[in-house]
């Protein structure tokens, strides 16, 4: 059985989608541990409910980002994960952390990358009058939200939409595509090579697969 470690900062809805997919055997693996930089993150309760070990590290207890990540890496490595999954983890990672898990570090971002890296993507979509929005699963590199895209899902933006409506629409797609990508990775179908994503031996285009 292959091992997944998940990092969260908040509600953990994508974590729940991956927990469910593991329980339904849609993912050939098990979540060995969930880590958070917020001790009160609801996602930790989701993990405990599923019988998954949880760990919370508080940034204020460390002298630097690097010191925090060193401790985090030490605790993650105790679980010998095959893949490290960022699911709403809101800390910028140190270069040492990214290097440690290079090629097996996944993230999901609520935009159609490379559009709208960073925060407040739904707000930017509304402010710019976009008719289309979505979410991207990508490999993590040193560039913020800039690693090779694996899979995207698009959603329409309707006149009169607010941020809550767009968030719900995007999250519905996230919960479908993130477990799928994790399953591809654990089945050895998905690789990162030469700063590109490869699926079944074929290099994916810059926007990855687009699931309508």
The ordered H/E elements are EHEHEHEHEHEEHEEEE
- By CATH reckoning, the class of the largest domain would read Alpha Beta
Major sheet summary line: 8 strands, mixed
Helix content: 25-40%
List the strand order in the largest sheet.
3-2-1-4-5-6-7-11
Distance, first to last CA: 32 Å
Number of helices: 6
The overall number of domains is 2
Describe this structure as you would to a colleague.
The chain is of the alpha/beta class and 212 residues long. It folds into 2 domains: 1-101, Formyl transferase, N-terminal domain (Rossmann fold), CATH 3.40.50; 109-134 and 143-212, Formyl transferase, N-terminal domain (Rossmann fold, 3-Layer(aba) Sandwich), CATH 3.40.50. It has helices at 13-23, 42-49, 65-77, 95-100, 121-127, 163-186, and strands at 2-8, 29-36, 54-56, 83-86, 105-109, 132-139, 149-156, 190-193, 196-199, 202-203, 209-211. The strands form 2 sheets. The chain has an 8-stranded mixed β-sheet with strand order 3-2-1-4-5-6-7-11, covered by helices on one side. Strands 8-9-10 form a 3-stranded antiparallel β-sheet. The longest helix has 24 residues, at 163-186. It is globular. 39% of the residues are buried.
